[in-house]
Amino acid sequence: MAAIRAKGASAAASPAVAAGESAPVATVKPVAAAAGPRPSVQDMLKAVREGKAGAMAAAPAPAVASGKAPVVAPPMPSKPVVASRKVEQPRRGFLMAAIVVACAPFSSAFNLAWTSITAVTGIATLGTARFMFPNVLVEPPSKFKVGPASDYPLNSVSNKWKDQYGVWIVHTDQYEGRNLIVALASVCTHLGCTPSWLDGEQKFKCPCHGSGFYMTGVNFEGPAPRPLERVGLRVAEGMLEVDKSVKFQEEMGQWVDAASFIELA
Length: 265
Ligand code: FES
What we know:
The protein is an alpha+beta fold. Helix content is 34%, strand content 20%. Among the domains are: 2-65, no CATH class; 143-263, Rieske Iron-sulfur Protein (3-layer Sandwich). Strands 1, 2, 3, 4, 9, 10 and 11 form a seven-stranded antiparallel β-sheet that branches. Strands 5-6-7-8 form a four-stranded antiparallel β-sheet, with no helix packed on it. The longest helix is centred in the middle third of the chain and has 23 residues, at 109-131. The termini are far apart. The protein binds FE2/S2 (inorganic) cluster. Residues 188, 190-193, 206, 208-211, 222-224 line the site of FE2/S2 (inorganic) cluster (FES). The site of FE2/S2 (inorganic) cluster has 13 residues, from loops.
């Protein structure tokens, strides 16, 4: 463009310069008369979209020749961030609808009253249904078989049934010199803790306050005031059968009851 302008200026000024006259004031012709057919804005936008910006830049040669700056198509505006708003709008709408539905029962005193009545009726119905299914406490049976007497060697304590039924099976000849098998309840006679059988020390020891009991169940140390209790024991169909529904206390003279032991020859 600079070259074209320089060429035109020199051509216009050369006669006057040559004659030694001052250069005439340049006059600007109307663009419409000098320029060729001007491209419309739609054409320019179409050219920009089709990647022909270079061709369009070269096209306004007539305007350049006339001294008018070429029309440059404005850049396409970037796409506004509208998509995210469109996504959020449904969520807001859903939230508002949920709030309206949730608050509907409290919108008036009438609705509030009916909501309260419905809630109370529902709670009462649930309570009635719960009453129809009472708690069931599953306890181990009071009578159970613990195997033959031969499973319990002399002067031994079996922990096999302690966790499940809360009894020890003891075979001992240390009580009055008689060869007996007894079932002792695993409940301390002080405050009801569960003692442990210490095989190395040959005694029951309560972890709560230190009471100690011989293998026979007789207390000998600590605060326990009386021996461990025996439970019922008999032989049924060749098996020892324990009956926890009956108890025998030594201090009450009940250990002489034949139902509290099995005596072996
Ligand atoms: S409960 Fe066993 S010693 Fe106290």
